[in-house]
Amino acid sequence: MKVLFVVPYPVGQAASQRYRVEQWLPLLQEQGSLYKLAPFWSQSTWPVLYKPGHIGKKALGLLAGFWRRLLLLARLPRYDYIFVHREATPVGPPWFEWVAAKVLRKKIIFDFDDAIWLPDSNRGSGWRKKLKWRHKTAQICRWSYKVSCGNDYLRNYALKYNAAAVLLPTVLDTDQVCINRKEQQTAEVAIGWIGSHSTLPYLQLLEPVLQRLERKYSFKLYIIADRPPQLQLQSVIFKQWRRGTETEDLLEFHIGLMPLPDTDWARGKCAFKALQYMALGIPAVVAGVGANLGAVADGRTGYICQTEQEWYERLEELILEPGKRAGMGAAGQEWVKARYSLQAHRHTFLSLFS
Length: 354
Fold this sequence. Notes:
The chain is of the alpha/beta class. The chain has 16 helices and 12 strands. It folds into 2 domains: 2-168, Glycogen Phosphorylase B (Rossmann fold); 174-339, Rossmann fold. The strands form 2 sheets. It has a 6-stranded parallel beta sheet. Strands 9-8-7-10-11-12 form a 6-stranded parallel beta sheet, sandwiched between helices. The longest helix has 19 residues, at 55-73.
C-alpha cells in the first residue's frame, strides 16, 4: 500500500499534524506500507507565517505552496490513498481534492480536528476569512472515501455528507509520554496552560478567577505558547513553546487549564490539552464545552466547570490539597491509556485504509 499525506505544515512543527498524522507513520511502516508527506508550507516560510508583517515572504511562500501542489498532481497516480489533513491548500476552492477524487479517481481520506467549516473569530480579517473558502469542507467530505474526525461533534457534521465518517480522537503514545510523576509536596503550586496564539484569547475567560486566587494564594501560572499572553496577572511565567522541551515544561504543572467559550467553533475542539495534562499525571480543569465533557472524568481525573464560581472553587481545592492532585493525576494516566492512547486506537486508524 502506498499513501500520500497531503498536509499543511512542515514536518514536526504543528501539534495537529504531529498527533493526527506523523505519530501514526511508524504503524504504517510496521504494516509494510510506503508513504510520503507533502507539506504546503515550506520550512523557510513557517517561522514567519503567524507573525505580523513579512507580507512579501508569506506571499512567496503561498505561491510556492500552490506550485508544489500543481506538481504533485502528476505524482498522484502512483498512490493507493491520498490522506488530506485539514485541506490541501490554505485558501481558495478545493481544486486539488476535486482533481484527485473526480478526475484521477483516487481514494481520499479526509482528516480534520477542528470545526474548519466555520470562521474562527480569533483569526484574520473579513477578506482573509472569505479567501479561506470554509464551505469547501462539505465538498471534500462528499468526495472522500472515508472521513476521519477528531470528536463526535465533527463526525456528526461529516455524516451529513458522507456515511463513511469515522471517529478517531486525537491520541497520545502513552508508552512514550506517561511518566511516573512524583509531585514535590513542598513546592509552590504551579497552574499551567499550553497552546498557540490562536487559543491564547481563551485564557482571558479565566482572568477574573485567577485574579481572585492571586489575592488569597501564592502560585505560579505557567503559559507555554508561541507568543506571550496579554493578562493582568502577577503570577505569569511565560515559556516559549519548543518541541524538544514540551514534556519537561509540562511536568512543571501541578494543575492544567483548558478554558473554552461555549461557541460552535470551540465545540469542535478535541480536548487535546486536557489529554496531555492527564497523560503526564496532571489533573485537568476544563470548561464544560464539546469534547471536554467526555475527555475528562469529572471529579476523578480532573474537573469540568460551567461557571466562574466553579472554576474558583475547583482550583482552590486543588491548590490546597496535594493528595487530591496526586490521586487525580494517577487516575488520569490510566484513563488516557485506556481511552485516548495510540495503542487503543490503532485498529481505527488502520481501518481508514481498508
